[in-house]
Amino acid sequence: MIRIPGFVDAHVHIESSHLLPEEFGKLLLRHGTTAAICDPHEIVNVSGEAGLRFMLENAKKSPCDLYFELPSCIPATGFETSGAVLTAKDTAELFDRYPELIGLGELMNVPGVLDGDLEVLAKINAAKSRHKIIEGHFPGGSGEALHRYAATGITSDHESLTREEALEKVSCGQTVFLREGSAAKNLTETIGAVTRENADFFCFCADDISAADLLDGGDILHCVKLAVKLGMDTALALKIACDNPRRYFRLPNDETTYVLLDETRDFEIVKVVKNGRKFR
Questions:
Q1: pTM reported for the whole predicted model
Q2: CA–CA separation, 252 vs 234, rounded Å?
Q3: Dihedral sign (CA 198, 199, 201, 205)
Q4: Alpha-carbon gap, residue 168 to 170, rounded angstroms
Q5: Residue 264 scores a pLDDT above 90
Q6: Is residue 66 helix, strand or coil?
Q7: What residues does 8 pair with on adjacent strands?
């Protein structure tokens, strides 16, 4: 039997599951995920601050710890019609209005970062000045462009498609979230980037996951099972699933929260205890 503090999903969009945060959290906990970092950019693109406020309030009913970031790209591009626009001024004000927001959500506007767009840089500075984590989104990022992107203070990325891409992002000081969800499945191609020497720079994430997939196999539990099946040492897989994201996001440790796994039965969840209360 293995006792762990619970899995952490380093990057997920609840809206992709079509579930409320409250219900999403129940499914996470069922499969041993006791905390998740959520970027609500879908609902905020539609409803602005009202959508953000709804997610924050509903998440309080979740038995799982759901941490939220402030979306950085509302709208995602200048070519789409959205229900809301968040400027750099709005970003600063929302960080102050909702201090529980732990970071700036994935910066999909790569050209804006690289071209020095003043609005984009002001959003980054709003996060930096408040000691918030800044999340990245740079598919195919490499070379000088990647170095410039990371140099702005963007410290993570979940878009790596190959072992080489993941390693180059780690070389720039970024923490790489190895993704295996419903919309994108990259773990098989990227797992080879992890070594005992660089393992501190990796986490697991689902990014976008359907309710059906979450119910069937879980998010991070599925990542751990696949990683071990692909040859990763069990202890290393559990470190990436549990310890690394807690350190990266500076999450609190709670000895009254833990999960028991049966390694001999394909990591079957034996017990889930959250804040001293047994959920499974």
A1: 0.96
A2: 24
A3: positive
A4: 5
A5: no
A6: strand
A7: 35
The Cβ-side half-sphere exposure at 49, using a 13 Å CA radius, reads 11
Q: According to the 3-state scheme, what is the secondary structure of 162-180?
A: CHHHHHHHHHCCCEEEEEE
Q: Is the peptide bond before 63 cis (omega within 30 degrees of 0)?
A: no
CB 71 within 8 A of CB 105: yes
Which three-class secondary structure string do you get for 55-72? HHHHHCCCCCEEEECECC
Q: Residue 37 is inside which H or E element, if any?
A: strand 33-38
| Residues in contact with 58: Cβ distance below 8 Å, sequence separation at least 6, in sequence order | 20, 21, 22
Find tokens 């999403």 and name the residue.
Answer: 24
At CA 105, angle to CA 236 and CA 160, rounded to 5?
Answer: 45
Strands 103-107 and 156-157: unpaired
Of 156, 160, 198, give the one whose Cα is nearest residue 180. 160
**Pairing mode of beta strands 2-4, 258-262:** antiparallel
Mean pLDDT score of the chain, rounded to an integer? 96
pLDDT band at 79 (very low <50, low <70, confident <90, very high): confident
CA atoms within 13 A on the CB side of 6: 33
What phi, psi does 193 have (nearest 5°)? -75, -20
Task: Show the tokens assigned to 275.
Answer: 């804040």
- Give the single-character DSSP code of 33: E
> What is the greatest pairwise CA distance in the chain?
54
**72 in Cβ contact with 106 (< 8 Å):** yes
The residues near 183 (Cβ < 8 Å, ≥ 6 apart) are 16, 207, 208, 209
| pLDDT tens digits for range 131-140 | 999 999 999 9
